[in-house]
Amino acid sequence: MPESENTMYIRSNGISAEGTRDQYADGKAAKVWEVFIGDTKVRTMNYRNFLVNMLRNRGCKRVLDVACGTGVDSIMLVEEGFEVVSCDASDKMLKYALKERWNRRKDISFENWVIEEANWLTLYDNIKDHVKGGFDAVICLGNSFAHMPDNYGDQREQKQAITNFEKCLKPGGLLFIDHRNYDSIMETGSAPSKSIYYNSQHMTDIKTSVLIVAGKPAMVSLDYLISTGDETSEFRLSYYPHQLEVFKKILRDIFGHNSYHEIYGDFKELRENDNPAFYIHIIEKSE
Predict the structure, then answer these.
(1) Which element (helix H / strand E) includes 218?
(2) Looking at the predicted structure, is the pLDDT value of residue 167 above 70?
(3) Per-residue b or e along 163-181, where b marks 16 or more CB atoms closer than 10 Å to that residue's CB
(4) What is the pTM of this model?
(5) What residues act catalytically?
(6) Torsion angle of alpha carbons 92, 93, 96, 102, nearest 10°?
(7) pLDDT tens profile 66-97
(8) 212: number of CA atoms within 13 Å, CB side?
């Protein structure tokens, strides 16, 4: 069964939930997601080379992964020799990372791998003992940032989270943060059928729903249908639809308009791919 998308637009008066809900809290999505994405071996070579080479070319050694999840990115970086601190707000997702650290504890790199539960809105306070002079890089990849909703309609919490990411960086440090091409999803009504991050062989069906609040897109929900052997699992994840130009402005307002800021599309320069599935931002904290 090929991956497909059906789109439903839902209009609502828009009663927002209080706080940021853990979409993996019941453990169901976390378990199925771990099967779907697999381990570091299923990361595409383009992705691995892009991230590792970018980090090494800029002399990065200490990396903070603020969207650890099951640990797939962090494990890859630990294996590549980086000193990694990982955090996530979902304890259900982190248990997979903690299990991997325990299983590989005889490797000194994994024994030194720090894993913490942390909330983006209080991130610096949660991990300040590990920040020290600041990290060389902070990564928030895999469309993770879009899990944070806009509870107040002005993106204040999203801005606070990015401010905390910036605070954890040393001067000259880099933030790597991505999001889907939601501009295209809004225009076409469907999400891209393939992910640049995973080479999953599991059969997947995705239905895309868009919530419109006060005439503006407020949430995109993806209903996943994943087949694992004889079993079929279904779960929903919801995302805030970041628009490219708005997201660029938020980053530059926080990091400074003269900061180095480059955007890639599916790990390529935008001139090579002007309508990518994902945008990857790299922005530098001023010296």
Answers:
(1) strand 216-228
(2) yes
(3) bbbbbbbbeebbbbbbbbb
(4) 0.83
(5) 24, 142, 147, 180, 198
(6) -80
(7) 999 889 899 999 999 999 999 998 888 899 89
(8) 9
